[in-house]
Amino acid sequence: MYIAFVSLILIASVLIVLAVLAQSPKSGMAANFGASNQVMGVRQTSDFLEKFTWILAVAIVVLSLAATMAMPSGKITQSKGAVEKSLEQPAQEPQNLQTPLVLPQGGEQPASEQPATEQPAQPAL
């Protein structure tokens, strides 16, 4: 049943794209040239396409909800398990990509190049 809902959603999506592309724009420069087309009954066609677009939009929403309800429980637990596994894994620390520091012959680092020591964060009061 889930596959049937997904198939219907895909068909409705293609139809809504075609219906939107078939509609003529209602404003802008192209609207000035379209006034003569309304004499021959194009107005009824545009009304039909507008209603058809709304019907398809509502159908896609309803079919999406129905597909969610009809989704097999195995896919839900598999999806849920993958999300939980990714949340449980601790964030990996970025590796230190700095080049090693070469010390001068004296054995001490210059004051400007000494590594900073980390101090514990002070809690906010």
Structure, described:
By secondary structure, this protein is an all-alpha fold. It has a domain at 1-13 and 47-77. It contains 4 helices and no strands. The chain starts with a helix and ends in a 37-residue tail after the last helix. The mean pLDDT is 74.
Characteristic key phrases:
125 residues, mainly alpha, 0% strand, 4 helices
Over the alpha carbons, how many angstroms does the gyration radius reach? 32 Å
Distance between the termini: 58 Å
- The assigned structural class equals mainly alpha
Count of alpha and pi helical runs: 4
Coarse morphology: elongated
- The unreliable regions are none
Question: Which range best describes the helical content: under 10%, 10-25%, 25-40%, 40-55%, 55-70% or over 70%?
Answer: 55-70%
Quick recap:
It is built from 4 helices and no strands.
Helices and strands, with pairings:
Elements: H1 2-22, H2 29-33, H3 42-70, H4 73-88
Helix pairs in contact: 1-3
